[in-house]
Amino acid sequence: MSLRKIFLSVFSLLALLLIWQVLATSLNSYTFPAPMLVVKVFWQACLTGQLPYHLGVTLLRLIVSFSIAMLLGCAIGIALGRKRDLDVFFDNWLVVFLNVPALVTIILCYVWFGLVESAAILAVVVNKLPNVIVTIREGTRTLDQDLMDMAKSYRLSKRKIFFEVIWPQLHPFMMGATRTGIALIWKIILVVELLGRSNGMGYQLHLFFQMFDVASILAYTLAFVAVIQLIEILILKPLDQRALRWRR
Amino acid sequence: MASVSLVNINIVKKNFPAVSQATEHLAIIDFNLNIRSNEFVCLVGPSGCGKTTLLNIISGLDQNFEGEITIGSASVKSKIGYVFQNPRLLPWRTVRENVELVLDRFQNASLIDQLLEVMQLTKFQHVYPERLSLGMSRRVGIIRAFAVNPDLLLMDEPFVSLDPPTARQVRDLLMVLWQNRPHTVLFVTHDLREAIFLADRLIFLSAAPMGVVTEITVPIVRADRENDQAIESFRQKLLNDYPAIKQLL
C-alpha cells in the first residue's frame, strides 16, 4: 500500500472521529456520548469482564452456527449442483426458505423448541443455510468438465478428485459464502439473543436499550466491529492469498 | 501378426441419441483396430469424424457404446495416459505438482526429473501453468502422460495450433522421449506430414460414421525421418497411390 493510501485512510478515520466529537459536544446530550466517554465505558466493561464474556458467548454461537451452516450448505450445494433431478426437486424449497424473514424463523424455533441454546443455533443455521446452498450450487455448476475428464481418465481417487480438482474451483464461491455468511449471521445472532437468551451481545444490548445507555451500546458495537475486522485480516485474507497464489 | 496385440478395439456402434433439436448422430460403426505392444499408430481423418469420441471410449470416459475394448491383460487394470488437445493442467498446481497429481503416493521422483529434463522443463518445474506458453503446457501434458508409465498412451492432436517451429520442437522432443521409453501410442492428427514423421502405422479414417478407409505401414526408418525430403516424397507417393486419402485431409 502506498504512503498516500495509508495517509488517506488514517485521515478519513480521524475525520469521522472529529465529526462525532463535534456533534457530541454541540448536542451535549446523554443519548449522544462523545468518543472519549465510549472508550472509557469500553475499558471499564473490559475490566469487569462483562464485555469479554458476552462477546465471547456471541462469538461461540457464531462459530458453531457458521460451521454447521457451511458444512451442510456445501454438501447440499454440491449435490444439487451435480444432480439435475435433485436440483429441480429442491429448488422450490430453497426459494421458500430464502424468503422467510429471519425474525419468523427465530420466533418459530423458540415456540417449537423452547428458549434453549439448540433452538437459537438452529434458528441461525436455518437462516444462513439456503444462502450457502445457492452459492455453492452455482459454483458446482461452473466446474470445468475438461478437468473432471482428465481426472477420470487418469483414474484419480475420489478423495483426490474432490480435494485437488473440485475444491480449488469452489474456493472463490466458498470465500464469498463465508464473507456474506459472517456478516449475515452476526446480525441474526443478536436478534436471537435479544429474543430468547440470557447472555451474549444481543441480550446486553437489550438491557442497555431499556436503560437508554447509549455509551455502552456503542462500546459493544465497536468491540464487535473490531472482532469481525480481525477475522477478516487474520483468517480470511491469508486463506485467500494462499489459495490464489497461482494467479498472476 | 508377429507380436501379440496389446490393444484390441472393437466398436460395433456408437451413437449420440437425438436431443431436442439435434437428430440422432451415428458416430462410429464397425470399427476394429489392434495395436501391437510399443507400436506408434497415427489416426488420420477429417475434423469432426469422431476421433475424439473414439479416444474417449478407449480411455473409459465414455462407456455408452456397443463393443469391447481390451488393453493388456484383462486381469490387471490398465493404465492410460491421455494427452489432450487443450493441456488440461490444474492452474493451482505447479508443473511438477501437476505431474505428481496423477501418480501414487510412492512416486518416482527421479522419473519425473528425467522426464522434465528430456522435455527441457526442469527450470520451469515450480512455475504455475498460467505463466507457461502453449507449447510448454503441451509438453507438461506429455510428461504427465508418460509419468504414469501407461499401457496405452492416447494423444489427441497435441500439436494443433502451435506455430510450425514450436510444433516441430515439441514433436522432436516427443520422439526422443518415446525412443527412450517406448510405449504403445495412439495418436490423432489431421496433419499427414506429422503422422508420417511419427508413426509406425497410419490409419486413415472416413468422415462420420467413422470407419477405416485404409491403413499403411510407414517404411521409412526412424533415422531417416529427420530428412524432410524423405517425408515429403512418401507423402506425395501416398497421395498418388491412394487418391481417396486426399478427401480426408
Termini separation of chain B comes to 29 Å
N to C succession of SSEs of chain A:
HHHHHHHHHH
Residue runs with pLDDT of under 50 for 5 or more positions of chain A: none
- What is the CATH top level name of the domain at 5-79 and 150-246 in chain B? Alpha Beta
Give me the secondary-structure category of chain B.
alpha/beta
Helix/strand order of chain B, N-terminal first:
EEEHEEHHHEHEHEEHH
Helix percent of chain A reads over 70%
Q: In CATH terms, what is the fold-level topology of the domain at 5-79 and 150-246 in chain B?
A: Rossmann fold
- Secondary-structure arrangement, i.e. CATH architecture of the domain at 5-79 and 150-246 in chain B: 3-Layer(aba) Sandwich
Indicate the radius of gyration of chain B in whole angstroms: 18 Å
Q: Tell me about the biggest sheet of chain B?
A: 6 strands, mixed
Mean pLDDT of chain B: 86
| DSSP helical segment count of chain B | 8
Subunit arrangement of the protein: heterodimer
What is the second-level CATH architecture of the largest domain in chain A? Orthogonal Bundle
Q: Could you state the CATH homologous superfamily of the domain at 5-79 and 150-246 in chain B?
A: P-loop containing nucleotide triphosphate hydrolases
Distance between termini of chain A?
Answer: 18 Å
Architecture overview:
By secondary structure, chain A is mainly α. Chain A has two domains: 61-197, MetI-like (MetI-like fold), CATH 1.10.3720; 199-236. In chain A, 86% of the residues lie in helices and 0% in strands. Chain A is built from ten helices and no strands. Chain A has helices at 3-27, 35-48, 50-82, 84-99, 102-113, 117-141, 145-153, 158-196, 201-210, 214-243. The radius of gyration of chain A is 22 Å and the shape is globular. The two termini of chain A are 18 Å apart. The model of chain A has no long low-confidence stretch (mean pLDDT 91). Chain B is of the alpha/beta class and 249 residues long. Chain B has a domain at 5-79 and 150-246: P-loop containing nucleotide triphosphate hydrolases (Rossmann fold, 3-Layer(aba) Sandwich), CATH 3.40.50.300. Chain B has eight helices and nine strands. Chain B has helices at residues 51-59, 95-101, 109-118, 134-147, 164-180, 192-198, 228-241, 243-246; strands at residues 5-16, 25-36, 40-44, 66-71, 80-83, 152-156, 185-189, 201-205, 212-217. In chain B, the strands form two sheets. Chain B has a six-stranded mixed β-sheet, sandwiched between helices. Chain B has a three-stranded antiparallel β-sheet with strand order 2-1-4, with helices on one face. The mean pLDDT of chain B is 86. Chains A and B meet through helix 7 and helix 8 of A and strand 5 of B.
